[in-house]
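G., the chain you wanted modeled:
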Amino acid sequence: MPSRKKQKGKGKSMLKKEMRQLANATPAEIIRGIHEGMPGATLALMKHLQQNGCHYDELERDGVIEAMLKNLKRCDESLASVFGVSPADQDMICLPQFCLSALLTVGRESHNRQEVCRKIAEGISPVIKCMVHERRVFFQSTESWFESMTHFIASIYIITQEQRETWLSVIKHDGLLPFLGQAICWSQCRQDIVKGFRRSNRTDPHEAITDAVHSIAFFLSQESKNFGIPVPIAFKLLKSIGAVAMAEGSQLSVIVGMIRSYGYMCQDRDISTDFSRNKLADIIPSLIRGGCVDETVMKELAKLRDISPEFVARCMVPIICSSDSRFAGALRSGLFATTLSICAQLGRQDICVKLFGGLESGKSGILADELASRMIDVLYMLRLHHKTHKVLGSMATLDFQGLEDKLEHISRDAQVSVCANCLRTFDRKVLKWCKGTNMLEPFCSRECLRESWDAEVCTDFSAVVEEDDDKRLISLKRNILQAGSKVFRDTVGIVMREYGQAIARGQGLTTTIDLREFPPRVSSGLPSVDLSGCVHVTFIAEDFRGSKDGGGRRVLVLRKRFAI
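Predicted structure as tokens:
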């Protein structure tokens, strides 16, 4: 068996022989050699193009895309095993980045760009895995890896500019979207990569990364509204960009890093960062819309109140949804109150808050006063839900000029308790509960509790509380009964004056209180049958539980009788 030294020498000889054979070959012949597995063919093609230039459409027709992808599919292997025995010079080390560069260049310049991008999208999966997991063996040197990373990011961006089917297959590759999100935050959490680009005399591809993510975010935002991707899938893809940790071991998510980067850029006012800053101003609201939002994110946004108030208002728009937990977080974090103050400031200047991708109505923006009104409308709808109601009960009344009455009503529903029997306001410290009503009805004293018990009011609650009601639904029903009782107390005098004579004859009364409207709409009437001198009250409210996940809102109807 020949020695390893002889084998190595033989490998070099074969490579030199192939290089001589291919020296005068045409690009088509060299590309054919790559497909046939000639180790020196890729190096020969690189030198030929460096010396003679190229015609991109001819290269594409000759199969250069397939040839480069054939090499790159083996990127888990070593450089030598893919391209042959490495010569003493640096040419061989440049081959991985040459393959990526060839894909990028032909993708940009070919007149058949759509077909080229489709081929790249179908064959680039191994490269995505290699780059996402930072496998550098194939690239032989750190400098080659950094150069190749620049070409890889640019190639992904080129693909994202093409038709839906082409790049949708690419962005679904496991790990790509989280990788791109993390790459935007390299300056905060991966100084080793940032310094690596500098040592290699390469420009940090932050701008190209941001551009690629911007293109993806815009597509998914539009696709979920106008095209064929179901909203849950589009939102899941958006969330995979921003919800991942900035780096291994980090407690902060990528979207927090993006918000901080945006804030730094706004403070620096460096003209060189204008491009990335404007792109981030679009990306961040899109990721929030996809579900990349929690209380930490909201607190970070609230910090930018004086730095970029309009941006904070933009980010509040996708948070305005029928979600109890999300609104409770906006209230706790201070973002809700901060945005109201921003809207008051912008409203005086008639500033329109521009939106990335526009609204469902087709508008590209929303006036600040309209945004504030919409925020308060949704808060009104959610005021009786468990988490929002709890937070409202412990905070001062919010303020916005022209909507003071509505905000006062919201605060009152959360902070004022009335006795289920006498309907008087009372201190919560003396609160009494009737177990027969599943703790839905509070009483101001044992005497009122006893009167209600003697009147057998609690027997009506078998139809109010159902066996499978969870904690949140029971809390919602409790708050509906409380809010409705306050409205009934405030309007019972008017009702009694209108129907006093019928009531004096022992006629019963029906009243409907619609808590969805402001002020709550009250309608009363005399039933066709005698109801034994009682007022039967129907409370109507909305249940938004599960609407964030596409469950939709439901109308909730509760009934209670009051003795006259």
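The first strand starts at residue 352 and ends at 354.

Shout if anything looks off.
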